[in-house]
Design a protein that fits this description.
Number of strands: 11
Structural class: alpha/beta
Amino acid sequence: MNQFLDMSPEVKEAMETGKPVVALESTIISHGMPYPKNVETALNVQRIIRENGAVPATIAIIKGRLKAGLTDNEIEYLGKTGRAVPKASRRDLPILVAEGKDGATTVTTTMMIAHMAGIEVFATGGIGGVHRGAQKTFDISADLEELANTPVMVICAGAKAILDLGLTLEYLETKGVPVIGYGTQELPAFYSRHSGLKVDYEIDTPQDLAMAFHVKRELGMKGGMLVTNPIPEAYAMDGTKIDKAIDQALKEADQQGVHGKETTPFLLARVAELTGGDSLESNIQLVYNNVKLGAQTASALKKLGK
């Protein structure tokens, strides 16, 4: 095991005895939602995973230690501290560990630490991707490169709707990352179920998702697999309403000079304000939907061995 990695007793026991484990990120706690909704959501997510037969492993960096599995007190700490906890992507990891600091893990660093711990399934809200206007800014999330290199299945509701979804798909295709629609041939657009863009494959059961990933690992292929799971219909938002809010948030980000790792938290928070909180509730519900599928898929994957 990596010398900088700590697994909680629950996660360690699960890994040693072959129980299914689902990785969870911590940026959504510190940067994605306001307190105390962030803590409430994180604890509910862990409960849903347990109810569906798997063990949750919320991942973060605390005092320079890579954590796979957090206590309720650690989740409360991340939630209360909020954006004062640095958002940690690949480039930040060695510095935060070397200096003994905290970090909220993004999709990228959650994948990295999950892989170190031997966890193969990770459920989240949405991944990063190619930002709108990237032809000028070159703002492309490290999440896409991690998907190309790290063998973890990522279950999400698509790339965040604030991004250029078409270019994100093109980037993933170039990197050889299979993009799967769970029960759909269309890429979900995070807050809404429709983007007008087609995924590579449609798969309809957790068992078939597990088999696809199992075959990929048995073939010895590097890189991950992206599963896009549409937000439940009851919580999906009107595309026109959400697009209007996103356009307004993007304009304000440009006017205020928001860039780099601060862009996504700013846009998500502003969209939530502009939609009267509707987007926050949608965000929470799509996460619940994804972690349930993650637990079911992780359970099916364990039955296939390894």
